[in-house]
Amino acid sequence: MTTPDPISRFVEATNKGDTQAFLATFAEDAFLSDWGRSFRGREQIARWNQSDNIGVKSHLRIVGITPTEGGYRVRIAVKGEGFNGEGDMAFTLDGDRIASLVIT
What we know:
This protein is an alpha+beta fold. Helix content is 29%, strand content 47%.
């Protein structure tokens, strides 16, 4: 399956360490949940990005992607100075932006 553009841009921006491009992948009022910690809007997502993503030099690799009702479940391998290993990310898209991301 071809990876939807917003998800591809999310991974590419993370891997390049490009915070502005990363935040631009999200809708203005996007929701992000990381193992129960919730963030709403780009300002809060920027804080998560600094503490848990680009700020800890994460590098992402898509292992697999499955369409779901209303979105996509993406298996991601993560390396960096924070979490290392594989996990699932559930994306809901709104056009060319991420409306919600739930990490489990």
